[in-house]
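Query protein
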Amino acid sequence: MPHAVIPGTVKPRFAEIVALVEEVCRSHLTEEYAAVILELTAALARKRPSPLLRGHSRTWACGITYTVGSVNFLFDPAQRRHVRGADLCALFGVSPSAGSAKSREIMQLFDIVPLDPRWTLPSRLVENPLVWMIPVNGVIVDMRMMPRELQQRACDLGLIPFVPATPGKADGASRRCGPPSVRGPLANYRDGVVDGRFRSARSGASNARP
């Protein structure tokens, strides 16, 4: 994410947090985690006034990483890549209570929930049900189960991040829908804002069938 979009007054603190996050992600997490964590850091930096200017950089770096880890079940030992919450906080030199408290603050600021599509790792999007549930005619449907033409239309409207792969075929996930991030459109359709647009698109696709 270009640093040019970060307000000048916040850039020094933003850079400190980014350096801390990148160090931990490089040694214990992944580049994919780093990218999503930095995106959330930038979102906090752009808030007016930015909360990043309060408190310590290490606490913020820990809290932001803890938040993205919570969304993606990083603390679940059943996951292939997992880290205990207390161990994650220790990597930043922050107490577990301070790290988890900062994470709760961030989650309240952005209304973040487990499996939140806005902060899901790209590699986990296809298995996240919240990414694919769209209200159509007042009914929530799973776009992975919908006909291909409706999936493509939803893709064109920016409602899904990519057209899911057809079972047994090597297509789908590579056919991304515009920008790779789904954070903006998903926030809209989860509130039903685009229900009417997609209903019209669905109707048009149905009428086009022979």
Observations:
- Confidence is low (pLDDT under 50) at residues 168-174, 179-210.
- Residues 3-114 form a domain with the Cyclin A; domain 1 fold (CATH 1.10.472).
- The first strand starts at residue 133 and ends at 136.
